[in-house]
Amino acid sequence: MGVNRAGDDVDDDIATAVGIFALTDASLHEAAKQSGVTRWELEDAIEAAGLSETFDIQQDGDVSETIDDLLDGN
Question: What are residue 57's phi and psi, to 5 degrees?
């Protein structure tokens, strides 16, 4: 990984997951899995950064979508 210039409080795995989600067609689940974090950690980070509305993410989420993603292996 590159040098963390933003500060010591930035989690590189979370930052990577946000980047994957923002810049590709990966779902939250896929971006989190590729980065080694949970979907919920990723959602929390996006919400904490004030980007939930930008990415159209509802914190409560769609539970059935999450279950379908997990059962499909996505």
Answer: -110, 130
